[in-house]
Design brief:
The complex is a heterodimer of chains A (615) and B (212). In chain A, helix 4 packs parallel to helix 14, helix 14 packs antiparallel against helix 18 and helix 19 runs antiparallel to helix 23. Chain A is built from 27 helices and four strands. With 615 residues, chain A is mainly alpha-helical. Chain A is globular and about 65 Å long. Helix content of chain A is 74%, strand content 1%. Chain B has a single domain, classed as P-loop containing nucleotide triphosphate hydrolases (Rossmann fold). Chain B has six helices and nine strands. In chain B, a hairpin with a 2-residue loop joins strand 4 and strand 5. In chain B, helix 2 runs parallel beside helix 4 and helix 4 runs parallel beside helix 5. The longest helix of chain B has 17 residues. Chain B is globular. Classes of the chains: A mainly alpha (615), B alpha/beta (212). Chains A and B meet through helix 1, helix 20, helix 21, helix 26 and helix 27 of A and strand 1, strand 2, strand 4, strand 6 and helix 2 of B.
Chain lengths: 615, 212
């Protein structure tokens, strides 16, 4: 210790002084507990309850009937007979295998595709263009994507038209290879289409976190200096630090893939179907005793999800094991050309699919007559759209009302929860519960807990249909809104908050006047994401309302099974446009909200020049 | 006004990070120097009330005998300035400064406006009120940032390497200007820096922390 100015020597303490106990450690925390913080902590607990209670109640609600307890039909003895009966059902093993096979294969392929795309484009300008190309499939609900595939791949679909040059080929074209195949290839195709953009986006958002981005840049420089190619650097240095961060979202994708209903319902084989589809049919069976079988199948579905997770983790372990040996060999290139070629092929495939899907759906919804194998419809008409617009009014207003209320309240809860975080840095019970709670609804298959939830809802508030569907949507919307906003919160420069507080503004004032305006972009995007997630919910809406409240998505799925391709096409177009409107609105609003008005600048132009010079 | 740190000890977990016992008189600028990791910024956070886990402190921090530790950050009357100007980009220059003005003192918006104009005029930044802050130069931003801090009429000001991002010529100019403003208002200030030229220019006591 030395002094520049010796007039008044500050007394310094030798480091060897016995440590006195920190006095203000706890006091500091209690000081921060103002009104605003108390509200924030309450919001956090409410959010946790909204995530945990429905899922827990739902799981109990399917577990009891599965064990033979279902008072409604006089069954009240616990035993395993229901399970024994389930395994006697014809084709049950095929159903289980189909669920597991399609889910695991689709998730592994989607992850590999995403990593291949990233490895080629992660340091190039193409990355943002890539996101644009992939975004239509990202925001399109699963049901919509599946229906779009039907339009493209069916025996008289768009691709059949493209590759058929004379009408005599109709006969052979009727033998569709891809659709409804008993191996589940079409299910895998649809899942890969939907999940690749999702995995890619998760990885990009991890890679853009300040600390990780810095690390990646450093690794890139070091790797380049050692002579590794960019693609080799991605697989050998970047992926090992990114993967642990996306493992949990990837497992959520996996659980969704093995247990989702809408894609196999629209694209999959019927006899036997995947287990999830069978569960849906059995639960909706007129014979109430089928509920026991459905419940036991739902429990088996949970088992399949757990098994799939184990398989996935084993696959990861395998890759890490061989990866380590591969790293030690020190090869500077990793068949770079082949990987680039695959990446560009994927990109082209996505462009072709997006463009032809849009064309086919729009054309179909306007076509008067469109005979095979013509590529252009013979005539255009508004008839289908008039029909659709009449019919869609109620489902559309239901969808928007539900989406806006769910997404808005989820946003408020998530913002307050995030506000309560920095004060108690990961030490409280609620903070420890949060990560688990967020992934709970994503890791427990919907078909498993939603039926149980409905059972409880019927017991408690039988007629509050809107409330039940609201809760079911919240369960799915909250995690996505949280994950999306948490990224922005982590990037936020907290010194703005310190400055504002030191200027004398209360914590609540700082939140509304500084933090909200500065984070308006990510907040609006999170809101639009919440809307898109709510829009896309099929099973939660169908089950909790018992069909009483129809949304665009439930109608689209219902129509897909029906006969009118025209109406079906129009519904998918609406499904695709709605989330895009949400994101467009978010983008537009974030550009005009909280921007200081620029009109006054021009009037002060003369002074502007002067003041710039004056520095 | 005087800022007094009495037997102040800052801990990281249970390890002692630094200890200080000093009084900064009104209009004085105390310089604290030391290598990174010596806890300079942590010291400022303790005084401003932003100390977070795993840090804690013992001893007293007071201004004119009023203990700050019992106050939440926004009631301490302690202004902080960082390397970056941190002007709020969703507000104009005028709105940034008005944001800082105590509402109790200026009862109407027009009085606040007049006061902003006066502040800007005094430092030859006339008619900057309606500028979008992102269009300002680095030097202008630092000066508006200080004006904003002063507009809140703080009892003490903490400066966390506020000049380190400015280029050399500008740094000297802004530094002199900042110190003049603080001295004119008789505000005790604590400056944390790497640059010994800052300490010389500040002219007050200087403390060098050792790295732990």
């Amino acid at each position: 210790m030395s002094n520049f100015n010796s007039q008044s020597t500050p007394r310094s303490r030798p480091q060897s002084k016995p440590l006195s106990k920190p006095l203000y450690k706890n006091r500091n925390r209690s000081l921060a507990q103002g009104h605003f913080n108390r509200i924030a902590v309450c919001a956090k607990w409410l959010l946790l309850c909204l995530l945990i209670i429905p899922v827990a109640a739902g799981v109990i609600g399917v577990f009891l009937p599965a064990m033979g307890y279902f008072p409604a039909i006089g069954a009240n003895q616990f035993d395993f007979r229901v399970f024994a009966a389930l395994f006697d059902v014809a084709g049950i093993h095929t159903m289980m295998w189909l669920s597991l096979f399609t889910g695991v294969v689709a998730t592994v392929i989607a992850a590999l595709f995403a990593f291949v795309l990233l490895s080629v484009f992660y340091r190039s300008q193409m990355l943002s263009r890539l996101q644009i190309v992939l975004s239509p499939f990202l925001v399109l609900p699963h049901a919509g994507a599946a229906i779009a595939l039907v339009f493209l791949l069916s025996p008289s679909g768009f691709f059949a038209r493209l590759f058929t040059f004379n009408s005599s080929a109709i006969a052979s074209a009727n033998e569709g290879v891809f659709l409804f195949d008993s191996y589940g290839i079409s299910i895998i195709l649809a899942l890969v289409l939907k999940e690749t953009p999702f995995v890619l986006l998760m990885a990009i958002s991890v890679m853009s976190q300040p600390l990780i981005r810095e690390k990646i840049n450093g690794y890139f420089k070091a790797g380049t200096a050692l002579g590794y190619s960019p693609i080799a650097i991605f697989f050998k240095l970047v992926l090992p630090i990114v993967f642990p961060q996306i493992r949990l979202p990837l497992l959520a994708v996996l659980v969704f893939a093995v247990s989702n209903v809408e894609i196999p319902l629209i694209l999959g084989p019927n006899d036997p179907s995947t287990l999830a589809v069978a569960v849906l049919h059995w639960f909706n069976h007129i014979d109430l005793s089928m509920r026991l079988q459905a419940s036991s199948a739902a429990v088996v579905q949970v088992g399949i999800a757990v098994f799939a997770i184990i398989v996935m983790l084993a696959v990861e372990k395998g890759f890490t094991f061989y990866g380590k040996k591969w790293l030690q060999r020190g090869k500077r290139h990793v068949t770079d050309k082949a990987i680039s070629a695959i990446a560009y092929l994927l990109l082209i495939a996505y462009v072709v699919l997006v463009v032809s899907a849009i064309y086919t759906l729009v054309a179909f919804s306007f076509a008067k007559q469109w005979t095979f194998p013509n590529i252009i419809p013979a005539d255009v008409t508004m008839v289908h759209w008039n029909t659709v617009l009449d019919a869609v009014l109620t489902p559309l207003s239901n969808t928007v009302l539900l989406g806006v209320s769910v997404s808005f309240s989820a946003l408020v809860l998530v913002l307050l929860t995030l506000e309560s975080e920095p004060l108690n840095t990961g030490k409280t019970r609620a903070s420890l519960l949060l990560p688990t709670a967020l992934f709970l609804p994503l890791l427990v298959p919907g078909v498993a807990f939603l039926y149980g939830l409905v059972w409880f809802q019927q017991l408690i508030l039988k007629d509050a249909v809107w409330f039940h569907v609201y809760v079911a949507h919240m369960v799915y919307v909250i995690p996505y809104v949280y994950l999306s906003l948490a990224v922005a919160y982590r990037k936020f420069d907290n010194r703005y908050v310190m400055v504002a507080l030191s200027l004398g503004k209360s914590p609540m004032g700082v939140f509304f006047l500084v933090k909200l305006p500065l984070l308006i972009g990510p907040i609006l995007v999170a809101f639009a994401l919440g809307l898109a997630i709510s829009f896309s919910q099929y099973l939660p809406t169908l089950l909790t309302t018992g069909g009483a409240i129809s949304t665009v998505t439930t109608e689209a799925v219902a129509l897909a099974a029906g006969s009118s391709a025209r109406l079906s096409a129009a519904y998918v177009v609406i499904q695709a446009v709605m989330p895009l409107c949400g994101f467009g609105l978010a983008w537009w609003l974030s550009n005009i909200l909280f921007k200081p008005s620029t009109t006054k600048i021009s009037t002060n132009k003369s002074s502007t020049g002067k003041s710039v010079r004056s520095v | 006004m005087a800022l007094t740190l009495r037997e102040l000890e800052i801990f990281k977990g249970s390890a002692l990070l630094l200890s200080l016992d000093v009084t900064v008189d009104e209009g004085e600028i105390l310089t604290v120097m030391g290598p990174s990791g010596s806890g300079k910024s942590t010291l400022l956070q303790a005084i401003a009330g932003h100390l977070d886990t795993p840090f804690s402190f013992s001893g007293s921090i007071s201004i004119d005998g009023t203990n700050l530790a019992s106050q939440p950050p926004h009631r301490r009357g302690v202004g902080v300035m960082f390397q970056d100007a941190l002007l709020f980009e969703h507000m104009t220059v005028e709105q940034n400064i008005m944001f800082a003005m105590p509402s109790a003192k200026y009862q109407t918006k027009s009085r606040k406006r007049e006061a902003v104009a006066k502040l800007l005029h005094a430092v030859e930044l006339d008619e900057m009120q309606h500028r979008v802050v992102t269009t300002l130069s680095g030097g202008q931003q630092s000066r508006i940032s200080l004006l904003r801090t002063l507009a809140a009429e703080p009892q003490a000001v903490l400066l966390d390497e506020p000049f380190s991002k400015l280029d050399t010529a500008l740094r000297q100019h802004i530094r002199e200007w900042t110190f003049t403003q603080l001295r004119e208002r008789n505000i005790p200030a604590l400056l944390v820096t790497h640059d010994s030229a800052d300490a010389v220019s500040a002219g007050g006591q200087a403390i060098e922390l050792s790295s732990c």
